[in-house]
Amino acid sequence: MSKITIWGDLMSQPTRMVVWVCKYNNISYDFNVVKIGLKEQRTPEYLKINPFGMVPAIQDNSNNFHLYESHTICRFLLNKYGDQHNLYSSNDIFQRAKIDEYLDWHHTGLRYTFHHYFHEAYLHPKFNEPIDFPLFDKTSNDIPKVLNQFQSLFLKNGQNQFVAGTNSVTLADFSAFCEISQLKLLKFDYTKYQHIHEWMQRMEKLTGYEDVFKFVIKLSKEEPNYLETIKRP
Amino acid sequence: MSKITIWGDLMSQPTRMVVWVCKYNNISYDFNVVKIGLKEQRTPEYLKINPFGMVPAIQDNSNNFHLYESHTICRFLLNKYGDQHNLYSSNDIFQRAKIDEYLDWHHTGLRYTFHHYFHEAYLHPKFNEPIDFPLFDKTSNDIPKVLNQFQSLFLKNGQNQFVAGTNSVTLADFSAFCEISQLKLLKFDYTKYQHIHEWMQRMEKLTGYEDVFKFVIKLSKEEPNYLETIKRP
């Protein structure tokens, strides 16, 4: 039996984080696809697993323990099954605090802007759904601000090789990368942000990257740029 | 010397959480007021302490270690100075995961809606600033939804005495209470949410409550209901 069962969709940034952390740490898992494009995360069956109707969610198969929220899931998995000194230090409380600091900032910093921008700039045009132009404009304006904050305050303009100032990758990098790389689907040019670009190249060499991102990479090559299809009323 | 230095404003929900957790755990601190009403969190001096321009921030005085993000600060303080088995269990990884699950949900669940609603419904009318009516309407509509989620999914309609399903208070309760109680300034009637009301009464008996909330309690009695002053264009 696999150690855990994951419910999710590899098109979801937080799902990719959990799957990648499992692959990187050799934590065995079964994967149940919950297709967010078909709104399967809102079915009565899935709401029994995560009552908030969001992916990912997991079950720890040793005792039927259920959990959602990707950061929480990864912290738990490393505590229970991982090498704790690796992605989320258990013996250096200062280093752990700097990882937590990023993970907490992520929700209202990077995630909020990227999540809403991606919905308005990619998902709505792709599925011919109405675009919320005030939200599109606000988040579109905020993307450079957030990326500059990320680059100057977390990567310290290249002084830091990784987000939390560590010598090797941590949970903070997995979380940030899964969100930032989503804009590849909109052909976003990251070479404009040199230190982010170099950090992304480091991340893309990690075990599990190609497996977890293959669908995103494929779509980013094959799809049109949906941004260019947007017509204002 | 105090163990830590805190920069913040007791009108800020996350500042109250950090101060309350210190008082509850007898962690000594010096407090530097950063008046958010005067936008002191955006001064060049303060931006050296927290470059994101938000309160609270702390310095651990044993080694000049700086940290922001209230949940991160509290996790760190309990790891370094607190009784770890108390508010954020270090020996029960399942319990710790349930505390983390709430703390992660908080950012995009409760905090997002309450933060924006409070700005539009209280701060802008109070200071005669323009109100963003679409945001006011959206968050106003979402308040009951979020409170019902909180009541049914975290308090399990009264089955849970505390947010993470524990027998005693945890970091999750401190975080949620500091945010939810902010609406007392708008005379919000919590008796409509019986289980939240009863949980709030339990929280208000904890060590440190009256000290940390005295300013909020005073204003909630003395001020008019700013909601009633709002005029739509």
UniProtKB/TrEMBL annotation, chains A, B:
SUPFAM superfamilies, sorted: GST C-terminal domain-like, Thioredoxin-like
Localization: Cytoplasm
Pfam family, one: GST_C_3
Domain GST C-terminal: residue ranges: 92-233
Recorded superkingdom: Eukaryota
Family annotation (InterPro entries): Glutathione-S-Trfase_C-like, Glutathione-S-Trfase_C_sf, Glutathione_S-Trfase, Glutathione_S-Trfase_N, GST_C, GST_Theta, Thioredoxin-like_sf
Gene Ontology biological-process annotations: glutathione metabolic process
KW Transferase (keyword) present: yes
Molecular function as annotated in GO: glutathione transferase activity
TM regions (residue ranges): none
Keywords from the named record: Cytoplasm, Transferase
Cytoplasm recorded as keyword: yes
Domain GST N-terminal, chain residue ranges per copy: 2-85
GO CC, any one term: cytoplasm
Protein known as: Glutathione S-transferase
Species for this entry: Tieghemostelium lacteum
